[in-house]
Amino acid sequence: MSLLTSSTTPPTSPAPAGSPTSGSRRSALTGRALLEALPVALRKLDPRVMWRNPVMLVVEVGAVLTTLLTIAEPFLGGPRTRAARPCPVSSPASSAPGCGSR
C-alpha cells in the first residue's frame, strides 16, 4: 500500500478568445463604470457627510481653499515677493535686509 497516491488531472481545453483567462486583460475602469460611480463619489463629498469624519472634513476644506487660492492668485496680482538677492559675504548678517542668521 502506498502512502502517496497519484492523481490525474483531466485534460483542459484552451480558453475562449474573449475570456479573461485567455491572456488578454480587460480594464475594470470603463467609461460606463466611471459614469455610474460619479454621482456616488460626488455625494460623498457633501460636507454633511464629511462632518462624521473630521479628518476628511479638514482635508476637504483645505483642498477647496487651496484650489480657490490657486485659481484666484493670478487675478489678484500674485504673491508680493521681492526678487532674491544674495547676501553680501563681507557684511554681518544682521546689517543686510532679508539676510538672517542661518
TrEMBL record:
Ranges of biased composition (kind: Low complexity): 1-24, 84-102
Residue segments, region Disordered: 1-28, 78-102
Name the UniProt record assigns to this protein: Uncharacterized protein
Natural source organism: Litorihabitans aurantiacus
